[in-house]
Every structure is written in C-alpha cells, then in structure tokens.
Design goal:
By secondary structure, the chain is α+β, with helices and mostly antiparallel strands. Helices cover about 20% and strands about 25% of the residues. The chain has a five-stranded mixed sheet with strand order 4-3-2-1-5. The termini are far apart.
Length: about 120
C-alpha cells in the first residue's frame, strides 16, 4: 500500500495528457520540491478527470480517475481569475469526498445538523 501523509490540491487546471514526469516538474516548479509520502492532485479544466501523483520515497506513482457524467467538485472561482494559492492541503476525508464527487469544501458544515 502506498502511504500518503499529506495531500495537496493543485489549483491550476492541467492537460490530462501530462504524464508523471511532467506533473512532477509542475510540482517542483510550483511548490519547490516533491516530498516523500505527499500526494498532489490535479484536474483538467472541466473537472471531469483527476490525476494523483504520489512520491513514495523511491519514485512516483500516477493514478487517474475519469467521470463519464458530471464533474468533480473543484475550487469555485470566477472565469479568468487565478486562485490565491497554487496548492491547498486536503484532509483524508476531504480527498475521499472529492474522489466520489461530494462537496468536500462543505464537510465541516455538513457534519452538524441544527435548526435554522
């Protein structure tokens, strides 16, 4: 099993034809280094495909997931506007929600039911 201690959401859309070497280059140029046991998550512009790049301490792994209908819940931003940060750290729960298409940004508020 591949260990992932920290997961990073890379906010800039990427061409999903990019392989592990190109995505690793993007991580190193954006963050400064690819750390062992860190995962870096990328999406295409339409958020219908995601790629996860993981440095396991010896090499890199690249996994892909594609939706045939719908989109992954990605960062909300107005068209043409660049996000404030190039990466955003995700918890394991947020990643699991994102990978199945749930609103991962709202996990905190969805975990409590109250009267309105």
């Amino acid at each position: 099993m591949i260990r992932i201690d920290t997961l990073w959401l890379c906010t800039q859309p990427q061409d999903m034809r990019a392989g592990a070497d190109r995505l690793l280059n993007i991580v190193v140029n954006t963050v400064g280094a690819a750390h062992a046991h860190h995962g870096y998550l990328f999406a295409n512009l339409r958020a219908t495909r995601i790629k996860l790049l993981v440095h396991d301490g010896f090499g890199v792994w690249c996994a892909t997931r594609r939706l045939h209908a719908g989109r992954f819940v990605w960062l909300e931003r107005p068209p043409g506007q660049v996000p404030a940060a190039a990466t955003l750290q995700l918890s394991a729960q947020q990643f699991e929600a994102l990978a199945v298409g749930l609103p991962w940004q709202r996990l905190g508020e969805l975990s409590v039911i109250n009267r309105s």
